[in-house]
């Protein structure tokens, strides 16, 4: 009866799906969504550890709240950057954002 | 196994399948609007998993912040960059996708074998339960006080930075005649407004 492993494996699967989306997406907005998926996978890990290994102090929940805060800030700034790039390049294709490519 | 554990296992299975299927939909569907709504479903399922983990406060925060703010923000972003464009096909794109899928599958196999091989020392302490929110508050204002304040400063910085980044660029050569005394961020007038005024002048 070890539910901890189920949660950890779920979080690992979600993280891998997020990495796949992050690398293969062409649309910038979908890349941002994949980053959110990965952050959520990490949060799920933290919460599982908090519940099963540290149920009295629940520092994992505090960490998860911090991660949620940072993720909200990251989404706002990321979308602002996407909008700014879209105005300059008139596209949302990742392959054409090659201003910094050597 | 008593009834409560059975219910827990069943709901864990349902929420997990729902979460993984929606996450695959987010990544694989071609319509970006469907992806955004499926992302909301992923966040809601994760909130349900948090409730299974005895964390009601974080589950509520997850719903509020992710479904209520981040997902809506992403939908607004999709609306603002709403351009139907067919991406130029990249030569041999399937090699990259296959390699990424192989790397992700390998990473998943590595992580899950590590999870299953590690002997976890489960704690037998009394869980915080209903008092969890009080414990979180005490952490915030005692040993996590500095990160808490830094997080508020970071949110302010993100707020200002997002506004600065997302506004239209100011063109400095067209100086307005009547200088406004009010502190405003100058930005380029919209093309829509300019086009409309041109039409009026032509008429």
UniProtKB/TrEMBL annotation, chain B:
Catalytic activity from the UniProt record: a plastoquinone + NADPH + (n+1) H(+)(in) = a plastoquinol + NADP(+) + n H(+)(out); a plastoquinone + NADH + (n+1) H(+)(in) = a plastoquinol + NAD(+) + n H(+)(out)
Membrane topology: Multi-pass membrane protein
Protein family according to the UniProt entry: Belongs to the complex I subunit 6 family.
First-listed, main subcellular location of the protein, grouped into a coarse class: membrane
Task of the protein: NDH-1 shuttles electrons from NADH, via FMN and iron-sulfur (Fe-S) centers, to quinones in the respiratory chain. Couples the redox reaction to proton translocation (for every two electrons transferred, four hydrogen ions are translocated across the cytoplasmic membrane), and thus conserves the redox energy in a proton gradient.
One Pfam match: Oxidored_q3
Enzyme Commission code(s) on record: 7.1.1.-
UniProt keyword terms in alphabetical order: Cell membrane, Membrane, NAD, Oxidoreductase, Quinone, Transmembrane, Transmembrane helix
CC terms in the record's Gene Ontology section: plasma membrane; transmembrane transporter complex
Name under which the protein is recorded: NADH-quinone oxidoreductase subunit J
Broad EC category: translocase
InterPro entries xrefs: NADH_UbQ/plastoQ_OxRdtase_su6, Nuo/plastoQ_OxRdtase_6_NuoJ
GO MF, any single term: oxidoreductase activity
Transmembrane segments: 6-29, 36-57, 63-82, 94-117, 144-166
Keyword Protease: no
Compartments where found: Cell membrane
UniProt-listed Gene3D superfamilies: NADH-ubiquinone/plastoquinone oxidoreductase chain 6, subunit NuoJ
């Amino acid at each position: 009866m070890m539910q901890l492993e189920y949660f950890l494996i779920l979080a690992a699967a979600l993280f891998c799906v997020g990495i796949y989306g992050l690398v293969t997406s062409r649309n910038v907005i979908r890349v941002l969504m994949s980053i959110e998926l990965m952050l959520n996978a990490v949060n799920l890990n933290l919460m599982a550890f908090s519940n099963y290994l540290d149920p009295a102090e629940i520092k994992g929940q505090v960490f998860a709240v911090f991660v949620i805060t940072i993720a909200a800030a990251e989404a706002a700034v990321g979308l602002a950057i996407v909008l700014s790039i879209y105005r300059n390049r008139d596209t949302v294709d990742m392959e054409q954002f090659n201003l910094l490519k050597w | 196994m008593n009834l409560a554990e059975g219910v827990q296992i069943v709901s864990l299975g349902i929420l997990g399948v729902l979460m993984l299927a929606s996450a695959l939909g987010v990544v694989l569907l071609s319509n970006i609007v469907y992806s955004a709504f499926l992302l909301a479903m992923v966040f809601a399922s994760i909130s349900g998993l948090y409730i299974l983990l005895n964390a009601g406060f974080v589950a509520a925060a997850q719903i509020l912040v992710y479904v209520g703010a981040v997902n809506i923000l992403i939908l607004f972003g999709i609306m603002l960059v709403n351009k139907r464009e067919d991406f130029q096909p990249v030569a041999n794109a399937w090699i990259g996708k296959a390699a990424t899928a192989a790397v992700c599958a390998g990473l998943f196999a590595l992580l899950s074998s590590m999870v299953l091989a590690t002997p976890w020392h489960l704690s037998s302490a009394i869980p915080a339960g209903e008092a969890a929110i009080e414990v979180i508050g005490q952490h915030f204002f005692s040993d996590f006080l500095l990160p808490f304040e830094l997080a508020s400063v970071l949110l302010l910085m993100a707020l200002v930075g997002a506004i600065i980044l997302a506004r239209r660029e100011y063109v400095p050569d067209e100086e307005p005649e009547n200088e406004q005394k009010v502190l405003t961020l100058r930005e380029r007038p919209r093309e829509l407004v300019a086009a409309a005024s041109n039409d009026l002048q032509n008429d």
